[in-house]
Amino acid sequence: MTYYIADSAVFIMGNCDLDSSLIITVPSVAEELKSGDASLRFDLAKEGGLRVEWPDPEMVKEVRKMAELTRDSEELSKTDLEILAKALEYRDKGLLLTDDYAVQNVAVQLGIQVKPIAQKKIKDIIIWQKQCIGCKKTFDKGDVCPICGSPLKKKRKKSRKEKSYF
Ligand SMILES: [Zn+2]
């Protein structure tokens, strides 16, 4: 049996083909759904058996660690971390449904199966870098260039899919 770990987009986009009793999500996703339609879909799914589970703090820790390595941590909200933690817990029997690029990126590195809702699945792993707008040097982090003092801008650095961080 495959469970669907659903982030907010599932309810916002209204993906209704799923068996509600196989959907699992986290409390922060429920909190995020402010729009009438999305929260209505959420309530309907809940009536159909959707489970709202708290993430395991140990799993959240592991997700955070990976997000640091892939430099996606700045992009991830609390909800993103929690949904990733839940997907990690169900790694062997779950499918993470998300359209969020940073979430997908971290999920792939954690060995989580990802299914996009509307967008195409990413093929390459994205590594974030900061690039100086003045001298164009790239850095791992920071806001100001240590060489020329110009602001640093976020930049995507692609790497091969096989690249491992371990
Ligand atoms: Zn510079």
From TrEMBL:
Coiled coil: none annotated. Keywords: Hydrolase, Metal-binding, Nuclease. GO terms for cellular component: preribosome, small subunit precursor. The keyword Zinc does not apply. InterPro entries: NOB1, PIN-like_dom_sf, Ribonuclease_PIN. One of its GO terms (molecular function) is hydrolase activity. GO terms for biological process: maturation of SSU-rRNA. Residues 5-89 form the Ribonuclease PIN domain. This is Endoribonuclease Nob1. It comes from Methanosarcina barkeri 3.
